[in-house]
Amino acid sequence: MNIPKENFSEWYNEIIKEAKLCDLRYNLKGFVVIPPNAAQVMKIMYRIYEEALEKKGHKPTYFPALIPERNLKAESEHVAGFVPEVFWVTKAGTADLEEPMAMRPTSETAMYPMFALWINGKSDLPLKIYQSCQVWRHETKATKPFIRTREFYWIEAHDVFATEEEALMQVREDMETTEEILHQRFGIPFIFFKRPQWDKFAGAVDTYAADTLMPDGKTLQLPSTHMLGQNFSKAFNVRYMNEDGSYTFGWQTCYGPAISRIYAALFSMHGDNKGLVYPFEMAPVQVIIIPIMKKDTEAEVRKKVEELKQRYPTTQALTLPVLWLAQEQFGYISEETMKYVATLLNVPFGHVLGVVSFYTMFHRKRVGKHHIEVCTNVSCMLRGSAEIAKRLERKLGIQMGETSQDNKWTLSEVECMGSCGSAPMVAIGEEYYENLSVDKLDK
Ligand code: FES
After folding, report:
1. How many Å lie between the centroid of ligand 1 and the Cα of residue 376?
2. How far is CA 74 from each of CA 117, 131, 203, 230, 238, rounded to the nearest angstrom?
3. Fewer C-beta within 10 Å: the chain N or C terminus?
């Protein structure tokens, strides 16, 4: 990192670029691509959140991403709050749709008409569901990766209760869940604030939002939980029948942890002047085992590499013999070894990976004392290599690609080994066994 964290705004942009957390080159303003480096961590965050919600009685669901216009307009405050930032789908192919459809900015108006169908009596309550999904909002303020984009990733939990007290208890439970996850597991401190009426969720009675302090001293709003009261249940007819035949509207809450935004807080809190830092549990790579050569052999290996350099015209061409040396040292080629070879020869990692993947003589996993390679290419296949492979699997009690528990045998399927004239053939280490048959194998 070239920019110290004190200059947080520039540091934020630099870490995103250097650690490849987000690709901003997607050609749609306000939309970004989240590559594996960040997506893997977000997936872990999703898993932790989903497990916690399910432990507290929420069930997973998936609702459509498109919401009919009439649903969105059913609750007047909600529509006033959300319509300015809704993306509308108005065409299918070249034809205009009869009714515009909103791309969900949040799912109350998709879910609650269904809740009205699902809830009849008190025994259907409480109803506690969640979904993990994307939502779309046409942000007009300047967008910032993970913090404010026009598409973001979140979980939304929606609950219905028979009484106001139960709904208020759920709001408290949402705050506790936030503490258990955000603070205790993600290491992100926050304080819940009750929002003033002008700043509450559109359609809610009250909103409680967790604010954290970012390294530049600015607040960032993280999950919020909303007491919806009976506002939506009245609009969508979410009610249950009492014993005397009368109806009571359900008391509702909703809770929305935005995973992409929490991820921004995660790497902003923990990252430092050297780059990314994650809590151990969140790190997609927690431990790297670096192969270190034995002291007395390191000099020897380096000498061999120097000798090889004289014989090969380019460092790219050197890759194969150097990998072979590495395999002799470690017994197999791990990802870390490939990285080491790439650095040693100053060639791209992709080139080293390509060589290892192409040549079957390189082992990606540790192999047993005796490595049996069965050629299954055309000539060997036509002359019975499949039967030989099956017999070996049965005899050794392992499948192709496996190593026996005592580490004695490894069985591999390989491409042509250049002995097609005496097919079928099998190699054990350096030895070739040719013109084989199942009978010969048994002997
Ligand atoms: S096909 Fe098996 S050695 Fe060539």
Report:
1. 7
2. 16, 22, 11, 14, 13
3. C
The b-or-e profile of 254-269 (16+ CB within 10 A means b, else e) is bbbbbbbbbbbbbbbb
| Ligand 1 atom closest to 375 (CA) | 2
Determine the Cα–Cα distance for residues 143 and 52; give it in Å rounded to an integer: 30
221 and 157 in a common domain:
yes
Strand order in the sheet with 370-375: 409-414, 370-375, 426-428, 431-433
Mean pLDDT by 10 residues, the chain (443 residues): 93 95 93 96 97 98 96 80 89 95 95 97 96 93 90 97 98 97 96 94 94 95 96 96 96 97 97 94 82 71 83 86 86 87 86 88 86 91 92 92 90 88 89 89 77
> Residue 377 belongs to what domain range?
370-442
Q: How far apart are CA 415 and CA 245, in angstroms?
A: 75
Out of 360, 379, 426, give the residue to mutate to test ligand 1, the one with the largest number of ligand atoms within 8 Å of its CB.
Answer: 379
Task: Give the count of domains, the chain.
Answer: 3
pLDDT at 429: 82
The H or E element containing residue 177 is: helix 164-178
Same domain, 309 and 401: no
CB-ligand 1 contact for 420 (6 Å cutoff): yes
197: burial class by Cβ within 10 Å (0-12, 13-18, 19+)?
Answer: exposed
Q: Same structural domain for residues 329 and 207?
A: no
Name 36's Cβ contacts closer than 8 Å, sequence gap at least 6: none
Same domain assignment for residues 354 and 374: no
The answer, yes or no, to whether any atom of ligand 1 lies below 6 A from the CB of 425, is yes
How many residues in total does the chain contain?
443
SS3 state of residue 331 = coil
ipTM given for this complex:
0.97
The answer to whether 426 and 410 are in contact (CB under 8 A) is no
> Bridge partners of 101?
68, 89
What DSSP letter does each residue of 98-123 carry, written as one string?
EEEEEEPSSSHHHHHHHHHHH--BGG
d(Cα 19, Cα 277) in Å, to the nearest integer? 11
| Ligand 1 proximity of 380 Cβ (cutoff 6 Å) | yes
CATH of the domain at 335: 1.10.10
Rounded Cα distance between 158 and 143, Å, is 28
pLDDT of residue 415: 84
Of 223, 250, 282, the last residue of a domain is 282
User: Is residue 318 included in any domain, yes or no?
Assistant: yes
142 and 256: one domain? yes
Q: Are residues 351 and 415 in the same domain?
A: no
Q: Which of 44, 109, 111 is nearest to 71 (CA)?
A: 109
